[in-house]
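ok so dumb question maybe but i'm new to this and my supervisor (M.) told me to 'just get the structure for Type I restriction endonuclease subunit M' and walked off. so i did the thing. is this what she meant?? sequence i used:
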Amino acid sequence: LIVACFFAEEQAQVDNLQSALDSANQALESFIEENSGEDGLLNDALNDKDKVTKATVTARLKLATDPDEKAALKQAKKLFDAEADAKKALKEAQEALDLAVFKQYPKLSIDEIKSLIVDDKWLATLESNIVAEIERVTQQLANRVKELEERYSEPLPALNQSVDNLSDKVAGHLKAMGLEWTL
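this is what came out, is it supposed to look like this??
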């Protein structure tokens, strides 16, 4: 709550850094996946667990002679470095935000605390619960109306006519079999 009220910009920065880290992870994983198959350029950089790591890439880069393999290894190293930089930046930003939040606690006045707890926490929770209950009741009502609409979609005179027609057919069949039936 304190982050949302007092440090929205810092939280947005942390979120952006998290997105950057996710993008760096995705780029690294896709590059490794594309180039670490049986005939892939990073195949020789696999460790004992069939994983490509920064250490194996660095070690293989010293031994590689093929220009294509060197280029792939340099790209992998660059992606590993980008991922490490993104992790470091995210960690630093998160720690700075946590410290700022921690320092904000003693600065809160009684009115701010009441506002945070009552308005931002309790009332928000109540509002979301009320909205959820209204949606649930509305959905139940809509389902019940649909059920009734399906049940009564054919009008009573049409149903009576159908019953009369079928009764006449049954009476005709019974008469054809030699049975006399009266209602």
